[in-house]
Write a structure and sequence with these properties.
Layout lengths: L22 H50 L44 E4 L2 E3 L12 E7 L28 H13 L4 E5 L4 H7 L8 E3 L5 H16 L4 E4 L5 E3 L1 H15 L4 E6 L9 E8 L9 E7 L4 H10 L2 E11 H11 L1 H12 L4 H11 L8 H11 L3 E6 L2 E3 L4 H6 L9 E2 L6 E4 L5 E4 L5 E4 L4 E5 L4 E5 L6 H10 L7
Parallel strand pairs: 3-4, 3-6, 4-5, 8-12, 14-16, 15-17, 16-18
Antiparallel strand pairs: 1-2, 6-11, 7-13, 8-11, 9-10, 9-11, 10-12, 18-19
Helix pairs in contact: 4-7, 4-8, 4-10, 7-8, 7-10, 8-9
């Protein structure tokens, strides 16, 4: 034994405890977190792959539906794919701007009978509940608003996207909306809510719209004031009116499924519900709100209808993927069907000041002199709020909102990226909204080009670009950033370029 190994009784052995876990333990925790992260990423990749497959399947179904409708529907084509007018003067060149007069395409009457398969919810077949397409007592409301910021510079404040022919089929979005809804209500029961700057263009594009059926709001107050104004006026004209609100700037494919879903929503609305139409999501979109499906209502004439469990705001990509994985969520397309009086009752309960102001306006609406005076006094003070926040969300919490799940094709054309998806293109080529002869590309894939100025656009070796060339403005961005175009609009306004907006 060495001296060094002999313990010294005078020296006290102490061990200093560590302040925290050992390095090895911390490393183990980190590695476990990394493994969990890799697992989550793999699961998300798997979900995205499955969603892509489902999306491809849905696209095939939509294409098949388009072909089926082409041979069977009354108008020859469904939804926004309305026929190109026969006169060459109506479409002199490929341009999304319709500056010419559009003839009436109103038919003399609805079909004598109607029974078509509709892939709604869990029911493969849904019969239209009437002998004709017309639904007695049903009034269509088309809110036509928007500042045109997300498709700028193609759309402008004075010429927003609902006035544009974004599919180059010869009809603008609002004309396609009119075509689609006319069989349900007739021109006498189809109304439009719009700002004063758009009334003239709307009347030119919709020559069958009755002058008394366009409700002009002095300034934008969001969807609740617009729809509430129409409800208040129509309730004065017909206390039993059931109204359906459908935006002027959405694209829909599959007329039969759409009409059947609306007819089913009307049946639910008769039972004192605020009814929305939920769109089957084709991908985990972060640009749309979602509706969570609740219990079935078990209504004989509305077999697919359910309560709305809740409304969800626009989610992030991961949350959207988790929504779709459950199968219990639908896109919130902003379509609402309800009794006009019931909507006003909800408004009185949840937004009493807004309700009182709209009633005050509606009571004098048919007297133009009094109308202008009351509008000048009341309208500026009305709250600017969407219908979802104003009445739909609080009413859903009390079980007074229903949803009809539907599977027709739908898009709100919210930016240039979504617009690109709606346009045809050759493989690995950009979409062109306009004259293809004005676009020359080499090694360019994806993206969208709008040759609106009439000059040649040449692109080399750039993918997924958005190029919008107008006579007074040129926009260049990427599809991934196209949702942010409205930020540029704000900067242009701040820089004094209001004449370009």
């Amino acid at each position: 034994m060495t001296l060094a190994s002999i313990p010294n009784p005078n020296v006290q052995n102490t061990v200093t405890p560590l302040a925290g876990p050992s390095v090895e333990a911390m490393f183990g925790v980190i590695m476990e977190a990394v493994r969990e992260s890799h697992h989550d990423i793999n699961e998300l990749r798997k979900e995205c792959h499955e969603l892509r497959l489902a999306n491809a399947s849905l696209e095939r179904q939509v294409r098949d539906g388009l072909q089926w409708n082409f041979h069977t529907s009354r108008n020859g084509t469904p939804g926004f794919m309305t026929p190109i007018p026969s006169s060459p003067k109506l479409h002199p060149k490929l341009s999304p701007f319709l500056s010419h007069a559009i003839p009436s395409i109103t038919t003399t009457g609805p079909d004598a009978s109607y029974f078509k398969p509709s892939p709604l919810g869990d029911n493969a077949l849904t019969a239209f509940p009437y002998g004709t397409r017309d639904i007695p007592g049903f009034y269509v409301v088309i809110p036509a608003g928007g500042a045109g910021t997300r498709l700028w510079p193609l759309s402008r404040e004075g010429h927003p996207k609902f006035l544009l022919d974004l599919t180059l089929k010869g009809r603008s979005l609002i004309q396609a909306t009119w075509d689609r809804l006319l069989p349900l209500s007739s021109a006498q029961r189809t109304t439009v809510v719009a700002g004063p700057g758009h009334v003239k263009s709307i009347m030119e594009q919709l020559p069958d719209l009755l002058p008394g059926n366009i409700f002009t709001e002095p300034g934008p107050k969001d969807s609740m004031a617009a729809i509430g104004l129409a409800a208040a006026i129509l309730a004065q004209r017909d206390p039993n009116a059931i109204i359906g609100s459908f935006a002027a700037d959405h694209m829909i494919s599959g007329d039969d499924a759409f009409l059947s879903a609306v007819a089913e929503a009307v049946e639910v609305a008769k039972q004192d519900y605020l009814v929305t139409i939920g769109i089957a999501p084709s991908h985990p979109s972060t640009g749309f709100g979602y509706v969570r499906l609740g219990e079935k209502l078990a209504l004989k004439d509305a077999p697919n209808a359910r309560l709305v469990s809740s409304f969800k705001e626009k989610p992030d990509a991961r949350t959207a993927a988790s929504y779709i994985a459950t199968g219990n969520y639908r896109w919130n397309a902003g379509m609402f069907v309800t009794k006009a009086t019931f909507l006003l009752d909800l408004l009185r309960e949840y937004q009493p000041q807004l309700h009182d102001g709209l009633i005050q306006v509606a009571q004098v609406w048919d007297d133009e002199t009094k109308r202008q005076a009351v509008l000048s006094e009341v309208w500026p003070g009305l709250e600017k709020i969407p219908i979802d926040n104003a009445v739909a969300e609080p009413a859903a919490a009390e079980g007074r909102v229903a949803v009809v799940p539907a599977t027709f094709g739908w898009d709100d054309v919210g930016d240039f990226s979504s617009l690109a998806d709606l346009l045809p293109a050759e493989a690995n080529q950009p979409r062109v909204l306009g004259d293809n002869n004005l676009v020359i590309t080499e090694q360019v894939a994806g993206g969208i080009v709008v040759p609106g100025s009439g000059r040649l656009i040449a692109a080399l070796g750039v993918d997924d670009l958005v190029i919008v060339d107008m006579p007074d403005t040129l926009l260049v961005t990427t599809r991934a950033r196209s949702q942010e175009v409205k930020r540029l609009v704000k900067k242009c306004r701040d820089a004094g370029h209001k004449n370009l907006l």
